[in-house]
């Protein structure tokens, strides 16, 4: 049996892995908000001020660092004043992007901030550039973050909130190349500068203004935004109108988003999915190369604020609601993404999976009867909590078998490692589907011992959890040893694993 060999340097640290790489995304789309986070105060499902409590309890175990809202495409048709004040007086709107359903605005700014407080998450508010105005976004910032006597602070108090909130992250529109307005990079860049200028910092609330950038590797957007951001030739990021640039990247099996089944896939489709997941490293490098040319001091952050798998909807569900199952394959996609994110943590400072509940690669699937299922992707997030704000450790695959079919030959093993507070966390993703993979990792520079090792897998790569079988895919203990400075662990097929070490 072929052994995979790797090395981790325990005595040399790289950049800090921002906890915000484990961010989440909640859009007014399908059952993410309504029937997911929000059930209303009169629901028989246990809730606090309308927010579903079992969802909050489950997500708190992930230490959610930030939550992006209200979109997505929905953000660029959302007008925040429609979602404040007495609910019975709030106007309705049509959600033209997602199902053409009527939005009653029951879940608005105050409800979102309440949710963030309950989760312990920092708010990431995505403003409306597509159909909104500069004044509208400027007043939203004031409404949320300004104390004292001002028009928006008075309005907030009239709506029941005396003190302002801290809201650090602000998105300047979404997918300006598509649903956000079908703009050119140059036109959007001018708009982004204008909107960013009027997003003011009130009462010490420092803003990270995030410009909406590319789809995948369309670096024209990165070029245009970086040229504008650094036009003063000054390294101070406060002189840039925005402090970060985003891009979006979705994984599929090769024929495009929303065209393939989440649970019924061939070996070829599996391999191509894994290949697409690995491909995000090339995409990040392309954006980094452009950003480094303009900004070698890395004062502007890169943000991947939408990522994940995008399959066909489950049969019998609304096509506009994007409800899909979540399998072992999805968990492996997440494992690979996080290894890549960790390697690029010096520039990549935030990422948001799409989406948290009931939409695309969700953490949790719920139903209207009170059922709740934790997905395989949820467990990857939980197993990786130790990486939050830890220091990346150099981790290298020295040799590994190749897996896949045709032209999709891929490394069977992906890994990353980090250290914090005298502990080390090693994450391992084995994408082979036929055989177990013995792994030997040379731990260099320090002595270490195993504290805990867990593995996540299922009967096959399509295995998933349901209300009838909620624990088909869940983490279980796996044997791992350190002898003579070598960490050994045997990984079953299609598995994600973490090994927690203590440094001696």
UniProtKB/TrEMBL annotation:
<dbReference type="GO" id="GO:0046556">
    <property type="term" value="F:alpha-L-arabinofuranosidase activity"/>
</dbReference>
<dbReference type="GO" id="GO:0046373">
    <property type="term" value="P:L-arabinose metabolic process"/>
</dbReference>
<dbReference type="InterPro" id="IPR013780">
    <property type="entry name" value="Glyco_hydro_b"/>
</dbReference>
<dbReference type="InterPro" id="IPR055235">
    <property type="entry name" value="ASD1_cat"/>
</dbReference>
<keyword id="KW-0326">Glycosidase</keyword>
<keyword id="KW-0378">Hydrolase</keyword>
<dbReference type="Pfam" id="PF06964">
    <property type="entry name" value="Alpha-L-AF_C"/>
</dbReference>
<dbReference type="InterPro" id="IPR017853">
    <property type="entry name" value="GH"/>
</dbReference>
<protein>
    <recommendedName>
        <fullName>non-reducing end alpha-L-arabinofuranosidase</fullName>
        <ecNumber>3.2.1.55</ecNumber>
    </recommendedName>
</protein>
<comment type="similarity">
    <text>Belongs to the glycosyl hydrolase 51 family.</text>
</comment>
<dbReference type="Pfam" id="PF22848">
    <property type="entry name" value="ASD1_dom"/>
</dbReference>
<feature type="domain" description="Alpha-L-arabinofuranosidase C-terminal">
    <location>
        <begin position="305"/>
        <end position="495"/>
    </location>
</feature>
<dbReference type="InterPro" id="IPR010720">
    <property type="entry name" value="Alpha-L-AF_C"/>
</dbReference>
<dbReference type="GO" id="GO:0000272">
    <property type="term" value="P:polysaccharide catabolic process"/>
</dbReference>
<keyword id="KW-0119">Carbohydrate metabolism</keyword>
<comment type="subunit">
    <text>Homohexamer; trimer of dimers.</text>
</comment>
């Amino acid at each position: 049996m072929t052994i995979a060999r790797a090395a981790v340097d325990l005595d040399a640290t790289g950049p800090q892995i921002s906890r915000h790489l484990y961010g989440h995304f909640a859009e007014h789309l399908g059952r993410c908000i309504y029937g997911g986070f929000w059930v209303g105060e009169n629901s028989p499902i246990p809730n606090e001020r309308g927010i579903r409590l079992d969802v909050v309890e489950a997500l708190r175990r992930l230490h959610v660092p930030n939550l992006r809202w209200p979109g997505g495409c929905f953000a660029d048709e959302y007008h925040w004043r429609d979602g404040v004040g007495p609910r019975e007086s709030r106007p309705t709107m049509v959600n033209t992007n997602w199902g053409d359903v009527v939005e009653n605005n029951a879940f608005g700014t105050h409800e979102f901030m309440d949710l963030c407080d309950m989760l312990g998450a920092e708010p990431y508010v995505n403003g409306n550039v597509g159909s909104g105005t500069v004044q509208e976004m400027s007043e939203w910032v004031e409404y949320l973050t300004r104390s004292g006597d001002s028009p928006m602070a008075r309005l907030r108090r009239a709506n029941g909130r005396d003190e302002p909130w801290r809201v650090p992250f602000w998105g300047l529109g979404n997918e300006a190349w598509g649903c956000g307005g079908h703009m050119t990079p140059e036109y959007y860049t001018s708009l982004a500068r204008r909107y960013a200028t009027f997003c003011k910092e009130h009462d010490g609330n420092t803003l990270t203004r995030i410009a909406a950038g590319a789809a995948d590797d369309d670096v024209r957007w990165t070029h245009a935004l970086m040229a504008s951001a650094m036009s003063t030739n000054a390294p101070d990021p406060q002189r840039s109108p925005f402090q970060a640039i985003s891009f979006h990247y979705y994984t599929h099996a090769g024929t495009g988003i929303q065209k393939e089944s989440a649970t019924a896939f061939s070996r070829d489709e599996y391999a191509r999915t894994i290949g697409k997941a690995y491909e995000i490293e090339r995409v990040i490098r392309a954006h980094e190369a452009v950003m480094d040319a303009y900004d070698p001091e890395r004062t502007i952050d890169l943000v991947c604020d939408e990522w994940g798998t995008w399959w066909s909807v489950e049969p019998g569900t609304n096509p506009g609601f994007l409800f899909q199952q979540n399998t072992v394959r999805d968990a492996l996609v997440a494992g690979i993404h996080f290894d890549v994110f960790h390697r690029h943590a010096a520039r990549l400072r935030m990422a948001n999976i799409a989406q948290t509940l009931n939409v695309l690669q969700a953490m949790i699937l719920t139903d209207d009867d009170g059922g709740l299922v934790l997905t395989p992707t949820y467990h990857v997030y939980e197993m990786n909590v130790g990486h939050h704000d830890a220091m990346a450790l150099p981790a290298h695959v020295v040799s590994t078998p190749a897996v896949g079919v045709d032209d999709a030959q891929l490394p069977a093993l992906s890994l990353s490692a980090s250290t914090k507070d005298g502990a080390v966390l090693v994450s391992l993703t084995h994408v082979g589907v036929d055989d177990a993979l013995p792994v030997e990792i040379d731990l260099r520079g320090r002595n270490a011992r195993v504290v805990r090792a867990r593995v996540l897998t299922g009967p096959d790569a399509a295995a998933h959890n349901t209300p009838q079988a909620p624990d088909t895919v869940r983490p279980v203990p796996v044997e791992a040893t350190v002898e003579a400075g070598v960490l050994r662990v045997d990984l079953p097929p299609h598995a994600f694993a973490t090994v927690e070490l203590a440094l001696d």
